Amino acid sequence: MWRPEPALFADRADAGRRLGERLRGLNLDRPVVYALPRGGVAVAAEVAAALGHAPLDLVLVRKLGAPGQPELALGAVVNGAEAETVLNADVVALTGADEAYIARARAQALAEIERRRRAYLAGRSRPDPRGRAAVVVDDGLATGATARAALHALRRRGPSRLVLAVPVAPPETVAALRGEADEIVCLEENAIPFGIGGCYDDFHQLDDAEVVRLLDAAAGRAPP
């Protein structure tokens, strides 16, 4: 992809190391790091390592794409104790997505969430964030729909401190999410004219095998 300037980050691991360095200064209490799969896992693995090899877990959340524009987020669905859907009302109105379309998109998203649960989390011991700091990590934000859904789900689980940590996001998205987390750490507030991928030299699509490898590596070094 052509860009007028160098990318902000070499790859997700580079972004995660830099994000982890920033987060170390927050003095988080027994942090648990929650990645938004799939791309966020590569960032979060480095964050977890930087935070004393904190436990790494996932928030299983999926974007709901707009009709004919799958990259534009109508909202997102997260499946924790119960499924929760968060919608971007302005995008819904702009695209004319009706209730039937949203219901179909939600059903498809929940099916993929269940597939990922089986692929990534089967047989794994998962930490309880209650009374601990929870850090939600993605590789970048556009509308923030998936991050908002993830924060809603985690807030219900009772963390003592809820932090959203991302390498890059537009300033208006960061501002819109201020009330959803106790703190937001964003390395670069950027209008992302070339999308999140344009902020990285290497923004390859993670596959299931890479996600599992990163989770296995973190599990082997994480304290209880």
State the helicity in percent bands. Answer: 25-40%
Shape: globular
In whole angstroms, the N-to-C terminal distance is 42 Å
Q: In order across it, which strands form the biggest sheet?
A: 2-1-6-7-8
Biggest sheet layout? 5 strands, parallel
CATH architecture: 3-Layer(aba) Sandwich
What is the SS-derived class? alpha/beta
Number of domains: 1
Uncertain regions: pLDDT < 50 for 5+ in a row?
none
Q: What is the overall number of helices?
A: 7
Task: Write down the overall mean pLDDT.
Answer: 92
CATH fold description: Rossmann fold
CATH class: Alpha Beta
Radius of gyration: 17 Å
The secondary-structure element order is: HEHEEEEHHEHEHEH
Number of strands: 8
Domain Phosphoribosyltransferase: 21-192
Protein name: Phosphoribosyltransferase
Keywords: Glycosyltransferase, Transferase
InterPro entries: PRTase-like, PRTase_dom
Explain the overall architecture.
This protein is an alpha/beta fold and about 220 residues long. Helices cover about 40% and strands about 20% of the residues. The model has no long low-confidence stretch (mean pLDDT about 90). Strand 1, helix 2 and strand 2 form a beta-alpha-beta unit. The strands form two sheets. A five-stranded parallel beta sheet has the order 2-1-6-7-8, with helices on both faces. A three-stranded antiparallel beta sheet has the order 3-4-5, sandwiched between helices. The protein has one domain: Rossmann fold.
